[in-house]
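Q: I have 148 residues here and want to know how they pack in 3D. Can you give me a structure?
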Amino acid sequence: MTQQRIDEIDISHIKIEDDSIDESEIVNEIDISHIKIEDDTPVDNFQSEKQQRLLVEPLYSSWSDHLPFIAAANVGVFYGLKQDAIVPDAFLSLDVEMPTDWSKKQNCSYFLWEFGKVPDVCIEIVSNREGNELGKKKDLYARIGVPY
């Protein structure tokens, strides 16, 4: 039996029908109008805010330009259309670009379907047990595939 290269296989006899696709069913943009991305409720104290800033600012001031990234503190990571965001104290996502137009809702938070990946690192500053960072949040990070 001789092997045939993929680019040598004749597929001209195969009929592909396009009429099965209803144009009205094609989704060009995901509707996120129901998702709440801000609640205007301060949840952290000055110490936590400073720790979060110290985790993010050095990356932007010292990182070389060869690899794009997003480092953010206290920004919602949305992993499902019908799920509340998980909000790490800080996260790092490599090989992604920061959107330029922040007036669009889909650019104001980290939507997995917009960036195409989970953050590479999520950091929680555990100061007390109220946020359940060691339990439920840690398990959720693992479940959605955050490696670190």
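Q: Anything worth noting?
A: The helical segments are 46-62, 112-115, 133-144. Residues 3-7 have pLDDT under 50 and may be disordered.
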